[in-house]
Design goal:
Two copies of one chain form a homodimer. Helix content of chain A is 33%, strand content 33%. By secondary structure, chain A is of the alpha/beta class. Chains A and B meet through α2, α3, α4 and β4 of A and α2, α3, α4 and β4 of B.
């Protein structure tokens, strides 16, 4: 079954990005043409014919999935990027990290009022990035259809930070 | 004709990222579901059935295109990222920028020897990133099938730095 195969192919990298963290490296899944297609197909099956106008892709690993899903479900692709990366006028949302803060931005014209927007990233960890992303979409008048991830790290309890939003992650560690 | 429509939809942003630069913002193309699909279809038509095993996607805007093209031509997706972003063992290539240097990396196991690899980015400017990307692919034993961009900025003469490689960019400014 393909989700099992995808799960087995995710690689554990100890001590990245800092000592004590066991990083889940999804790149071996994407490098395998068959598994990458099966991964994308999971999302396409779930989101086709759901009236999703845009996929908001979270910088940078979310970009790897969102383009493939967007073209197959007939949605536009809009990026959520770290501050300073988007060239046009932006709105921004700052949130707390374990040490310090981070700021995410979107172009002010990325969403038409009322559009259904799917937010995509590779992995749900503590949920800070995901929540800030949802707030950005809503500030622009979008309706968050769901937040989709390939992987959820359950022990980091990101889901608790995202109550009120629908979440999807086919693989949970 | 769709290339004309795509070209018209690319937005000029003056003075980004620094004063005096007229930035070509492709995001309005991607936000338009129909134009984004037409953009991806250009690449799919060119690269399907060409025996391309992997698409090497350049961080970060190249990721937006490469996932969609890879799944449609049956290729794997491998990232070329700025130093410090990839978790597993990497090889790296440092190149000169106008001020200072930049270092790109790839995972050591991203390519099997002899595989045909398509390198994708959104835009060809001076060619430094593209050339470093090609060197990385070759260091891993890959064969660079072509370097593909949505946009080429002809006046920056990136093409001259990439002699010996096949280049494709449907839109030239």
């Amino acid at each position: 079954m393909s989700i099992e195969q995808i799960t087995k192919t995710i690689r554990d990298v100890p001590d990245f990005p800092i000592a004590g963290v066991l990083f889940k490296d999804i790149m071996p899944v994407l490098a395998d043409a068959k598994l990458f297609k099966e991964t994308i197909d999971l999302f396409v099956a779930r989101y086709k014919d759901q009236g999703i106008a845009k996929i908001a892709a979270v910088d940078a690993r979310g970009f790897l999935f969102a383009g493939a899903v967007a073209t197959q479900i007939g949605a536009g692709l809009i990026p959520i990027r770290k501050k300073g990366k988007l060239p046009y006028k932006t709105i921004e949302e700052t949130y707390s990290l374990e040490y310090g803060t981070a700021t995410l931005t979107m172009h002010v014209d990325a969403i038409q009022k009322g559009e259904k927007v799917l937010i995509m990233d590779d992995l749900l960890a503590t949920g800070g990035t995901a929540l800030a992303s949802a707030h950005l979409v809503e500030k622009l008048g979008g309706q968050v259809a769901e937040l989709a991830f390939l992987v959820e790290l359950d022990f980091l309890k990101g889901r608790e930070k995202l109550t009120g939003y629908s979440l999807y992650a086919p693989i949970v560690f």
